[in-house]
Amino acid sequence: MFNLPRRTLLGAALAMPMVARAQGAWAPTRPVRLVLPFAPGGLTDILARAAADQLSARWGQPVVVENRAGAGGNLAAETVARATPDGHTLLVATQGIIAINKVLFERLSYDPDADFIPLAMLAQQPNLLVVSPRALPDVTDVASLVAKLRATPDGMPYGSNGVGSFTHLSMELLRATLNVPMTHVPYRGSAPLLTDMVAGTIPVALDGLATSKPQVSAGGALRAIGVTSARRFRAMPDVPAIAETVPGFDASPWYGVFGHAGTPEPIQAGLEAAFRAVLESPAWAAVLAQREADAMPQGRAGLATLMQRERQTWREAVRRSGARAE
């Protein structure tokens, strides 16, 4: 074994964060902020913190997760839109900020189409289409739900966790695709919605995996008949994708990283490469498996195309629903 001088070892350790820069890739020169539109503790926060830990080790700079919840994500978006476009302030966002808010809110202080560029997609996690066995005892799959909807000319009621929420707009997308009448019953969050579903007051809803799956597992208080992803979800392989019955349906929440649109190309490329290294790591695969989320491996070009499609899909859903921010 070679015994290297302590000074040599110290110098090598200090040089490690500079490796990427020495190889020509951009790296931050001060702490990086990951700005989130949600409170701590949810999936977005967990994913952001897991990514921050890896990025910090890679860059040799602190990566700080900053939770700026409120105003439908607009506070977080404004923070990044007003930041210096140097790669040190990034936005972690969902469809809400990027695709929906522009038509949901009467006015915004930022332009989601012009102010941000996509850098990476952290993950996606589908919502569940759940029915109340008390209200719909004979509905066991999407096909039988569709038959029931077509046989209800006055419009079957469906619940959501709020006007303009992603679950509301996703159900509106499904309703429009099927061309059936339905009546929206908004709730203030998932908890009261699911309570009424278990009681049989509300027959059907789309809801988040974290909140609805326990009700499905708890003795069948609710019945999961579909997932909103284009394909079956690996964490619930026995639950079909809605798209198996309704071709083309795809309405899964995703969690992406965006930068200021004025960020120079070399910095964009460096950020993309850094996030790609994180997302391709075994540690990241373990995070997704533990949190029951799926990877969405796409480069910047693919993400830009996806954003265009998402804007068209969800803005049309908002217009059809007539939803406005409360």
Overview of the structural elements:
The chain folds into 2 domains: 182 residues, Bordetella uptake gene, domain 1 (D-Maltodextrin-Binding Protein, domain 2, 3-Layer(aba) Sandwich); 117 residues, Periplasmic binding protein-like II (D-Maltodextrin-Binding Protein, domain 2), CATH 3.40.190.10. Helix content is 42%, strand content 17%. It starts with 5 loop residues before the first helix and ends in a 5-residue tail after the last helix. It has 12 helices and 10 strands. The strands form 2 sheets. A 5-stranded mixed sheet has the order 2-1-3-10-4, sandwiched between helices. A 5-stranded mixed sheet has the order 7-6-8-5-9, sandwiched between helices. Strand 1, helix 3 and strand 2 form a beta-alpha-beta unit. It comes from Falsiroseomonas algicola. Keywords: Signal.
Q: Which descriptors apply to this entry?
A:
10 strands; D-Maltodextrin-Binding Protein, domain 2; 2 domains; globular; alpha/beta; 326 residues; signal; 5-stranded mixed β-sheet
Number of domains: 2
Helix count? Answer: 12
How much helix, percentage-wise, in residues? 40-55%
Radius of gyration: 22 Å
Could you give a short account of the major beta sheet? 5 strands, mixed
Report the count of strand segments. Answer: 10
Rough shape? Answer: globular
SSE series: HHEHEHEHEEHEHEHEHEEHHH
Organism: Falsiroseomonas algicola
Family: Belongs to the UPF0065 (bug) family.
Keywords: Signal
Signal peptide: 1-22
